């Protein structure tokens, strides 16, 4: 069956990775109400039922949504409006803050995932700027656009508020693994956390392309806001089906990244996900990637391994892992880019 291809060939997914027209929406990822965590108490007082929900969600899905999370709806509205204004600017304006080989922060429109171009534009902001060049050679200084007015203030405020939530979730997930809640905080003292603004234009061939190709997030966890369009699909562990994550107003989508999968020695899952696009509506999303410091060596935690459950991964440097991944994202390479399976031990 012929169909008119209106997009550049670089965006076209290989046959087996194209989105099916119907993605199952009969099931959905778990929804967790965080209201039992009052904003001033620490997570040690989290009720058992909440911990059990977190444990099941991280183990069975690697994804869940949270409500009553403490980030104000007004801030979400302001961020969404500012983001839309930025991406509506003319290309030459956006390119004034474009990423380059030295500095991978700011605007970019040509990212590839697994060597196929993504149908999206992004703007990357580091949560904590650093004066020195990172141990793996990354420049960690933000590029701020002149317009829209208030862009910097809005996203600085947003990053701060969402980072607070990310740390509460980090502690809650640690507790759900029977670790002391602050056990993992040490890896984030010089955190590499990144706020990313995604913009997906309507696409004339939504059945051939993806907004973001299938991938797993490398960090510890991701806190993502999406607008009401929908398009994020998660691979269900039980049967490998793609499930659409239903937009819930003012909720955040949380997913466990590769770092937690390795720390937990595969108890928790870094699930594969992707973004389908839409021929009519555009879409925005805002992931906050809670990522350890570049100098962190990631390996299964001692508390979670023993003779019966030996470490399934060799240690790797977080900084080098993301550096290698980033090179593969900026341009098309002839080889598959690096994945955590690379560090998996033969059992
Ligand atoms: C990502 C991602 C999902 C989305 O940027 O890593 O998975 O819904 N985004 O935009
Ligand atoms: Ni992702």
From TrEMBL:
<dbReference type="Pfam" id="PF03171">
    <property type="entry name" value="2OG-FeII_Oxy"/>
</dbReference>
<feature type="domain" description="Fe2OG dioxygenase">
    <location>
        <begin position="190"/>
        <end position="292"/>
    </location>
</feature>
<keyword id="KW-0560">Oxidoreductase</keyword>
<keyword id="KW-0408">Iron</keyword>
<dbReference type="InterPro" id="IPR026992">
    <property type="entry name" value="DIOX_N"/>
</dbReference>
<dbReference type="GO" id="GO:0046872">
    <property type="term" value="F:metal ion binding"/>
</dbReference>
<comment type="similarity">
    <text>Belongs to the iron/ascorbate-dependent oxidoreductase family.</text>
</comment>
<dbReference type="InterPro" id="IPR027443">
    <property type="entry name" value="IPNS-like_sf"/>
</dbReference>
<dbReference type="Pfam" id="PF14226">
    <property type="entry name" value="DIOX_N"/>
</dbReference>
<dbReference type="InterPro" id="IPR005123">
    <property type="entry name" value="Oxoglu/Fe-dep_dioxygenase_dom"/>
</dbReference>
<keyword id="KW-0479">Metal-binding</keyword>
<dbReference type="InterPro" id="IPR050295">
    <property type="entry name" value="Plant_2OG-oxidoreductases"/>
</dbReference>
<dbReference type="GO" id="GO:0016491">
    <property type="term" value="F:oxidoreductase activity"/>
</dbReference>
<dbReference type="InterPro" id="IPR044861">
    <property type="entry name" value="IPNS-like_FE2OG_OXY"/>
</dbReference>
<protein>
    <submittedName>
        <fullName>2-oxoglutarate (2OG) and Fe(II)-dependent oxygenase superfamily protein</fullName>
    </submittedName>
</protein>
């Amino acid at each position: 069956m012929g169909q008119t291809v209106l997009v550049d060939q670089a965006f076209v997914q290989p046959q087996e990775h194209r989105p099916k027209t119907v993605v199952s929406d009969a099931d959905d990822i778990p929804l967790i109400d965080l209201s039992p965590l009052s904003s001033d108490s620490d997570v040690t007082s989290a009720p058992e039922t909440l911990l059990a929900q977190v444990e099941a969600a991280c183990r069975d899905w690697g994804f869940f949504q949270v409500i009553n999370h403490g980030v104000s709806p007004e801030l979400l509205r302001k961020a969404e409006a500012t983001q839309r204004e930025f991406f509506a600017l003319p290309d030459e304006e956006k390119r004034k803050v474009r990423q380059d080989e030295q500095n991978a922060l700011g605007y970019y429109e040509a990212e590839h995932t697994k060597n196929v171009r993504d149908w999206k534009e992004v703007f990357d902001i580091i949560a904590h700027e650093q004066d020195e060049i990172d141990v793996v050679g990354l420049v960690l200084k933000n590029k701020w656009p002149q317009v829209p007015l208030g862009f910097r203030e809005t996203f600085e405020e947003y990053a701060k508020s969402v980072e607070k939530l990310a740390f509460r979730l980090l502690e809650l997930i640690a507790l759900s693994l029977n670790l002391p809640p602050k056990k993992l905080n040490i890896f984030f003292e010089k955190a590499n956390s990144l706020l990313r603004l995604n913009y997906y234009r309507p696409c004339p061939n939504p059945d051939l392309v993806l907004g973001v190709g299938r991938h797993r997030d490398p960090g510890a966890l991701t806190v993502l806001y999406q607008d009401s369009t929908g398009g994020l699909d998660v691979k269900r562990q039980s049967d490998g089906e793609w499930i659409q994550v239903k937009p819930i107003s003012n909720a955040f989508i949380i997913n466990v990244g590769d770092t937690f999968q390795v720390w937990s020695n595969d108890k928790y899952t870094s699930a594969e996900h992707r973004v389908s696009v839409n021929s009519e509506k555009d879409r925005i999303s805002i992931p906050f990637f809670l990522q350890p410091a570049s100098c962190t060596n990631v390996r299964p935690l001692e508390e979670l391994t023993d003779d019966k459950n030996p470490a399934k991964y060799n240690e790797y440097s977080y900084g080098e892992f993301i550096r290698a991944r980033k090179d593969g994202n900026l341009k098309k390479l002839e080889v598959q880019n690096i994945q955590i399976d690379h560090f998996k031990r033969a059992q």
